[in-house]
Specification:
There is one protein chain. With 756 residues, this protein is α/β, with parallel strands linked by helices. The protein has 22 helices and 27 strands. The termini are far apart. Bound molecules: iron/sulfur cluster.
Length: 756
């Protein structure tokens, strides 16, 4: 039986469809201001007729933001075909009129002079970055011809599709119709995958995005490596602040004194790589001191007996030397959670691919949530509601004879299903030609040289390609290696599939529609995919006429008026977020195999993995090296926003945080430019040191996304340093295949000069 004809093991667990210290009060006040416009009320539907600015007629076009992936509601103020300003859309049920700095700066993406403006065809050697201008017809004809040729020579599986975001969804349909199962985006293997699998194994559903964490109603908030406030999603920050304003206790586990840690009741500066030991000790305290929500667990959970036996030895005293957190502190924080139960929001995190034990750590977090009776309860995690959009009937997709090349569903049994895939193993398959040759890549809306670790492998894989196409808004680094570059319209110029969101207390539909016509010769993704389908004889997979037709078909069963949706931008529905609100039509409470919370996982047991999470030690930095950790800043979204002029003004480059006495041992001082070198000899671009007591002595920290080597990004080119360029090795999670990336160590070298 080929891999493609086996049932994907995920089917067993239900289908995945999807220091500077300031006072706490001061932070809350300041953050309220930063959070922007207050709620206008979820149901406060109002239309947005044209208005006047002086003599200029101004229209308000409702859409949603793509400066990150929270998709906040936006009102674009448009006059004479120009977007003058972006504001939050008060009708949006989740984000209620808020935009962050990045959202406000969306106009600077739209009007970025570095944008890709017309199709390009390579004329120099691959990687030389020499292109000639082409018409869309010429570029698409060539694109289609190369896809046909590769299919003929190597089979449809020889094409790898590497997308990110919402817009590539149309192209994803095209790739399925073409017949390749090799689709891989970083959202799973480099970000949320292990978390979603861990929670799905336990509760029967993934966490999803936006995360359904009831921060505003919580009496205790637990953040493990999540630095809310530096990592900004508007509604999440607002709800976090609301929870603190209501008096929620805050426990922050982080090797770094983050902004969130500075507001915490308990900051636990954990030794990196030992979070699972802390979680097991907390679980031990809750069980051994009878602090669990027994009634809830008796009614909804299985496996408590096995868990009780399993954690007996994992006392706080056992965890203290491992985590370097005092046993008394571990007990105290476990008691704080117990006192607040069930209103305990244990945030499952978002970027969770750290040490290769990530699914098991997520399982431990899910189990902790269950023991506190917090899943489906006010102040804990709330439940998604049902919202069933229309389906556009399509012909069946061809089955692949050879199955996936990335090992998903076979080597990594609980990897993402085909539509998300494992990017780094797809890279390896391309590099080695095993299990079969992959000779073409289509990269869409992501910078693979910064989003996928081990860029040395990505570059070697590119050498094996006979064809590479890049579809993007900006000339990100890998465009240099492409045969064809297609300029996509920005999110303010295009229609994308609507956001149909169930992980909000009020589920909703929100649209993305063009505020203005695409500039230059850029085209929206839906148009590119439809044009390619016509050329490849696959038009039957795109039976809708235009975006309005597509949208109307999707919202038909939801009884939403198309004109109203286009005017308001979002329409919400009643939700049933807590167990006591559930209705029959919401489906099972816990869609696991057993219909219960599976504290003991029979799925993992059947697959010969530990059915209950176990701690194992991770490699420590050698003498003279620090563990490289990384995170986010509120004014940037990965490598997506560094070329944005307003955001560049706010934060032009990153710094490397090093503990002050440790910096002194390296002979460097605060503000000095240095070079980092990792255990494999990979060197960073010059980066300024932030010598601070706000980080443990065994780590170095930087904000992700800087140090691009794409010369076409004139603002961002070679500014700051890239953590990805120092991540030359990874620890693979054996359950999901995701890449743990906090396993690289760096040392400080003298500066090798200023930025070149
Ligand atoms: S959080 Fe900011 S960048 Fe992200 S979608 Fe919302 S406004 Fe845009």
């Amino acid at each position: 039986m080929s891999a493609s004809t086996q049932t994907h093991p995920n089917a067993k667990i239900a289908k995945v469809s999807q220091m500077r210290k300031i006072t706490r009060r001061g932070f809350l006040q300041a953050s309220s201001v930063l959070a922007g416009v207050a709620s206008a009320g979820v149901a406060a539907a109002e239309s947005h007729p044209p208005s006047w600015r002086g003599d200029t007629r101004v229209e308000q076009i409702a859409t949603n933001c793509e400066m990150c992936f929270w998709r906040c509601g936006v009102m674009a103020e448009v006059a004479d075909g120009k977007v003058l300003k972006l504001q939050g859309n008060p009708n949006h049920p989740l984000t209620k009129g808020q935009l962050c700095a990045r959202g406000n700066a969306g106009t600077q993406l739209l009007y970025d002079p570095d944008r890709l403006k017309y199709p390009l065809i390579r004329r120099g050697k691959r990687g030389e970055g020499k292109f000639r201008r082409a018409s869309w017809d010429e570029a698409l004809d060539l694109f289609a011809a190369r896809l046909k040729e590769l299919k003929q020579k190597y089979g449809p599986e020889s094409i790898g599709f590497l997308p990110h975001g919402v817009a590539p969804g149309f192209f994803g349909t095209l790739m399925k119709a073409y017949g390749t199962p090799n689709v891989a985006e970083p959202a799973f293997a480099q970000c949320r995958g292990p978390r979603d699998v861990g929670y799905q194994l336990t509760f029967g559903r993934p966490v999803n995005s936006p995360e359904p964490i009831d921060l505003e109603e919580a009496k205790c908030i637990v953040l493990i490596g999540s630095h809310i406030g530096e990592n900004v999603f508007t509604s999440q920050v607002t709800n976090f602040i609301a929870g603190l304003q209501h008096g929620a206790k805050l426990i922050v586990v982080d090797p770094r004194f983050s902004t969130a840690a500075s507001k915490a009741d308990w900051w636990l500066p954990i030794k990196p790589g030992t979070d699972l030991a802390l979680l097991l000790a907390w679980i031990n305290v809750l069980i051994s001191e009878s602090l669990i929500d027994k009634d809830y667990l008796d009614q909804y959970a299985i496996g408590l007996k096995e868990l009780t036996e399993h954690v007996k030895e994992f006392t706080p005293e056992w965890a203290e030397p491992i985590t370097q957190i005092a046993a008394a502190r571990i007990r105290e924080t476990a008691h704080a959670m117990a006192d607040a139960k069930p209103a305990v929001a244990v945030h499952p995190g978002r970027h969770v691919t750290w040490y290769g034990d990530d699914t098991q750590r997520a399982r431990a977090m899910a189990i902790l949530t269950a023991l506190l009776g917090a899943y489906g309860r006010k102040g804990g995690m709330f439940l998604p509601s049902k919202l069933k959009p229309g389906r556009i009937p399509l012909p069946s997709f061809p089955e692949s004879e050879r199955g996936r090349a990335d090992g998903g569903g076979t080597r990594f049994p609980l990897a993402a299903e085909e539509s998300q895939g494992l990017s780094h193993t797809l890279v390896q398959a391309t590099m080695t030609g095993s299990p079969y040759p992959i000779k073409g890549w289509i990269v869409y809306g992501q910078n693979i040289l910064e989003s996928i670790p081990q860029r040395q492998n990505t570059l070697k894989a590119i050498e094996q390609l006979e064809f590479m196409a890049v579809v993007d808004v900006l000339p990100v680094e890998q465009t240099n290696y492409a045969d064809i570059v297609l300029p996509e319209a920005t999110y303010l110029e295009r229609y994308d599939p609507p956001a149909i969101v169930t992980t909000s207390k009020r589920p909703y539909v929100a649209i993305r529609q063009p505020a203005i016509e695409p500039m230059y010769e850029s085209k929206p993704g839906w148009w590119i995919a439809k044009q390619m389908a016509n050329r490849l004889g696959l038009a039957e997979y795109f039976p809708w006429k235009d975006p309005d037709d597509h949208l109307a078909r999707l919202i038909a069963p939801l009884a939403v008026n198309l004109a109203e949706l286009k005017s308001l931008g979002a329409v919400s529905f009643d939700g049933h977020p807590y167990i006591e609100d559930r209705k029959e039509e919401d489906g099972p409470l816990f869609p696991t195999q057993s219909g219960k919370i599976e504290v003991f996982s029979s799925v993992l047991s059947d697959l010969k993995f530990d059915p209950l999470p176990k701690f194992s030690t991770v490699e420590q930095p050698p003498p003279g090296y620090l563990r490289l950790i990384y995170g986010r800043a509120p004014m940037h979204s990965f490598a997506r926003s560094e070329n944005n002029s307003w955001l560049d003004d706010l934060m032009p480059e990153n710094q490397v945080w090093i503990n002050t006495p440790i910096a002194a041992t390296f002979g460097v001082r605060d503000g000095q430019r240095i070079t980092l070198e990792n255990q494999d000899g990979a060197k960073s671009l010059p980066i300024a040191v932030r010598a601070t007591e706000a980080i443990r002595k065994d780590c170095a920290y930087m904000v992700h996304g800087f140090g691009t080597l794409g010369q076409g990004l004139t603002k961002a080119y070679k500014k700051g340093a890239s953590d990805t360029q120092l991540i030359t090795r990874v620890a693979i999670d054996p359950i999901t295949g995701a890449t743990g990336m906090r396993v690289n160590f760096v040392r400080v070298l003298p500066a090798n000069g200023e930025r070149s």
